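[Meeting: bench + compute handoff]

Bench side (C.D.) handed over the final construct sequence. Compute side (W.E.) agreed to return the predicted structure before the next meeting so the bench team could plan truncations. Sequence as handed over:
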Amino acid sequence: TLVFFDEPNRVQAPAGYDFNFWIGRVLPIKTSLSLEALPAEKEVEAHLKLISGASMFVRRSFLDAVGLLNEQYFLYFEEIDWAVRGRERFQLGYCASSRVRHKEGGSIGSHRDLAQRSFFSEEFLARNRVLFTKTYFSLRLPVCLLWIIFVGAHRIAKGQWKLAWALWRGAFRGLLAPVKPIPLTTAW
C-alpha cells in the first residue's frame, strides 16, 4: 500500500493501478482512501493491471521468464511493460499490510498538481505512452494520439503552454522511437 509521504494515513495507491489501454493512461483503483478504508486484497487484485514501481517485489521465476525492465522507457511505463510481458504466465498480487511512504515526483518533478509538473516529466510521460501503445497495441495508437492532442489543447486553454508543448514533443519522440520489445526468455 503506497501512502503519501507527507500524509502517511492517506493512501496513494493500493498496490498499483488499473490501466486504460486505449489512451495509455494509468487509472487509480481507489482514490483518497484512508488506511482504515482499504478494500480487500482480492478486490484490488481484480482491477490491477500494473504494480507501482515505487513498491514491488518479483519472483526469480518472473525475472527468468520475462527478463529485466525495458531500459528503452527510462522513466514511466516500465512497470506496465513488465506486467504486459508477464501477464500470460504470472499474476499480480497485493499485500495490504505492506506500507511504503512515497514522495511522489521527488526526483523528476512529476506531481499530481498540474501546475507543479516539470517539462521533463510531461515529455517522458507522453513519449512512453506513445511508445508503449505503438509496441503492444498499435491499432489503438490513433486514439492515444488524439487523447494527447486533446490534453495538450486543454493545457493551452488553462495557459499551460510549456506543458502542452512537452506533451506534443514527447508524443512525436515516441512516434520516432524504434520499437524494441524485450523477447521473452527462459534465462537471462
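W.E. noted at the follow-up: Residues 64 and 187 are 5 Å apart (CA to CA). C.D. will use this when planning the next construct.
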